[in-house]
Amino acid sequence: MPRQLNQLLSTAAILLLAGLIASAQTPDQVLVVTNSKSAISREIGEYYVHRRGIPLSNVCMIATAPQETIARSIYNAEIETPIGAFLKSHGLQEKILYIVLTSGVPLRVDGPGDTLRTERASVDSELTLLYRRIHGSTIPLPGPIDNPFYRHQDTPFRHPAFPMYLVTRLDGYSMSDMKGMVDRALLARNTGKFVIDLKTRENNPGNQWLRTAALLLPKDRVVLDESATVLAGIKDVIGYASWGSNDTDRKRRFLGFGWLPGAIATEFVSFDARTFRPPPEKWEIGDWNDKRTWYGEAPQSLTADYIHEGATGASGQVFEPYLAFCPRPDLVLPAYFAGHTLAESFYAGIPGLSWMNVVVGDPLTRLRN
User: Fold this and answer.
1) How do residues 318-362 score in pLDDT, each as one tens digit?
2) CB 59 within 8 A of CB 34
3) DSSP per-residue letters across 122-154
4) Which uninterrupted H or E stretch holds 230?
5) Is the CB of residue 224 less than 8 Å from the CB of residue 214?
6) What CA–CA distance (Å, rounded) separates 288 from 217?
7) Average pLDDT of 118-140?
């Protein structure tokens, strides 16, 4: 089939799909988790609840030290158990589809093991499995666990068809960053450019997924680059996918994009969500061979930089996920363009749960025509 015809058919299918997404999720299907021991958590939680119209009865307050990295025992006792108890006591375990964590809720669960047998995970990804645990399932700790919503970018998320919660996080360097992200989510429109930047001179699955993403989006709305040039300074950006600092040609943290309300970003970087604490103002992407250039245990680009620059949502990893378990841009971006929520779009492209992934943003963010 000629390439242009194939793209036209793909775009037509996506637009048709957008028209079929009629059962939009609503604020009363969102659980907001705040931490009583973090003033920041309480403030951004209250702001989001007010702006998005979340029922106050859907706010679950936990009490745990606001550390980014915690032990498994702390996760079990102070995060998962109280959230599960809240859902059950309020009869919300089926109604709630989305769980929103707030800055000040721990980020990473440490643990033994390495490679694909590690017990490490993001708090966010671990919580996606709370639905199954509430229903009596025993899930082995070494991950990743298959994501039942993976590749379901043509199906609205619902229970019990998909036995999990979609978990996102409101986090960033400052309250201004976080409130801005919430405000922009309410203004999201289906306009602007999808910027897709490949790593040059390589033929690998990541580059193939990036090329496929470009083919599945309207040609006149895609900026695709396969050269050594790192795309920067582009205006009216609604979606971005790249290798981040794993592209050796990239030397700078900020790309100078003009992000539109609702814009999302994803990249193939192992530790970009390792911290949401702001680095020194002059810090730039570093070198693995020189620890003096590291920030937060790694020299790599940071998810929070995209939020700080004006994106409305982004994905990242807290520990090494391996390329196969990073969000797939050829699934995430077309789903988002088609009208799925931010959370649905990212989780449709994430293969594994109880793993390293973090999704930042208001889960209900949706591109409206």
Assistant:
1) 999 999 999 999 999 999 999 999 999 999 999 999 999 999 999
2) yes
3) EHHHHHTTHHHHHTT----SSSPEE-TTTT-TT
4) none
5) yes
6) 35
7) 96
Q: Alpha helix (H) ranges present in the chain?
A: 3-20, 39-52, 72-75, 81-89, 123-127, 130-134, 175-185, 205-215, 303-309, 329-337, 342-348
- Measured distance CA(342)–CA(216) in Å, rounded: 18
CA end-to-end distance (rounded Å), the chain: 30
Mean pLDDT of the chain: 93
- Whole-number Å distance between alpha carbons of 21 and 44: 30
From CA 243, how far away is CA 161, in angstroms rounded? 33
27: left (phi over 0), alpha (psi -120 to 50) or beta: alpha
Return the half-sphere exposure (C-beta side, CA atoms, 13 A cut-off) of residue 262: 24
**Ranges of each domain in the chain:** 13-20+191-350, 27-170
Length of the chain (residues)? 369
For 151, the token pair is 């590749």
pTM across the whole model: 0.93
* 204-231 burial code (b ≥16 CB/10 A, e <16): eebbebbbbbbbbbeeebbebbbeeebb
